[in-house]
Design a protein that fits this description.
alpha/beta, 48% helix, five-stranded mixed beta sheet, single chain, 145 residues
Length: 145
């Protein structure tokens, strides 16, 4: 089982994938797309190649937690993915993810620019790692002491 993490943008989609044990998120690539149809096709390709079980998408909620236009568009795209790929799609609150990703890249001595896609990849890694950490905690709590 592998989980695909996505940081959706209008022109760029940061992609991360879990290791087979679903404990570590690894940067995969940044997809540069010009349309929703192209985005669906590229994500479909990754889904087919990678033995993906679940897709986690960063949900860009407003700072107060409300659903704004970007979050609404993200949910609509998730519905398209579910229908097109017949896959489980989950959401992960991505508030402040870009700021954290910029800091992580800066601390690693890397320039965080949107043009080359590194920032999108790092954001996807943070989204997916948060989801995987929660997955690990919930499965441990079901096992009991």
């Amino acid at each position: 089982m592998r989980v695909l993490g996505l940081d959706l943008g209008e022109r760029r989609i940061g992609v991360a994938v879990s290791d087979p044990s679903c404990s570590i998120a690894l940067a995969r690539e940044t997809l540069f797309v010009s349309s929703q149809k192209e985005a669906l096709s590229e994500i479909g390709r990754l889904f087919e190649e990678g033995g993906i079980d679940t897709i986690v998408i960063g949900l860009p909620l407003n700072l107060d937690g409300s659903v704004g236009p970007r979050a609404k568009t993200t949910k609509e795209f998730a519905d398209l993915l579910r229908n097109e790929l017949n896959v489980t799609v989950e959401f992960w609150d991505e508030r402040l993810t870009t700021r954290i990703a910029k800091r992580a890249l800066h601390d690693a001595g890397r320039t965080a620019t949107r043009r080359d896609g590194r920032l999108d990849q790092m954001s996807a890694v943070l989204i997916l790692q948060g989801y995987l950490d929660r997955l690990a905690t919930t499965s441990k709590s079901r096992e009991g002491p």
